[in-house]
Amino acid sequence: MLVVLWGAFVRASGSGAGCGSHWPLCNGEVVPVAPRIETIIEFTHRVMSGVALVAVVALWLWSRASFSRGDRARRMALASLVFLVTEALLGAGLVLFNYVDKDASVGRAFYLSLHLVNTLLLLGALALTAWFSREARVVHARASRLVIAALPMALLVSVTGAIAALGDTLFPATSLAQGFHQDFSDAANFLLRLRILHPAFAILAGAYFVVVSIVVLRSKQRGVATKLAAGVLILVLAQLSAGAINVVLLAPVWMQITHLLLADSLWIALVLLAVEAQPRSLP
What we know:
The protein is an all-alpha fold. The protein has helices at residues 2-12, 37-66, 72-96, 106-132, 145-148, 150-170, 176-184, 190-194, 197-218, 224-248, 253-276.
């Protein structure tokens, strides 16, 4: 999670080109000498990613030693490793394809969206590794379709959020009125014209998440499923509030990071609820 949030800080602070077009080296050096602040920010992200890679490799080896072949925890640990390797390659592509700094191309928007989807799948796999590894953890073979349907919705909202955040970074507004004018201007970059999709999708998806949470809370289920549903409900309301504050404050970096933290937490809660909700107990 820290790597993900720091990666967002790299993008929001305009530090994506801090190591130039070099990867895995930074400006052609293993450790940059006399670096600029942008270089420090980007190099720190690479170091954190390397530490995360070592940790997930250790997680996978631990799962092989602790669980039998075919165990859910072992499969999710392997999935985590695969998604983290893919994450590293996608991050390298951002640098090597020059999808950093002031680039406002369709390619960057698509690539960033792909990167985000992989990030969420990685977080989900890591969360499920921990969840399935708990002793006496009984997870139902079939999950509720009602909850599963929330997952692609969350992915779509996150992708539109990434595009909106990129537009906020590349074309910052000086006032709320100017921001609205950018959204509806025919001369505006496509990133700005697509920005309006995010709040619309977020409100619609948020309403669905609230309904799902209430359905689970009112069902015959007890225990962890209801706790997760309550967590989803709280996170949805917090996320929508953070989104509104982000718009009013013109997307400052600290608020973008907070918004992303809530989004990732909500995604993890939805993933766990999807494996815990029993379809037979839902109306």
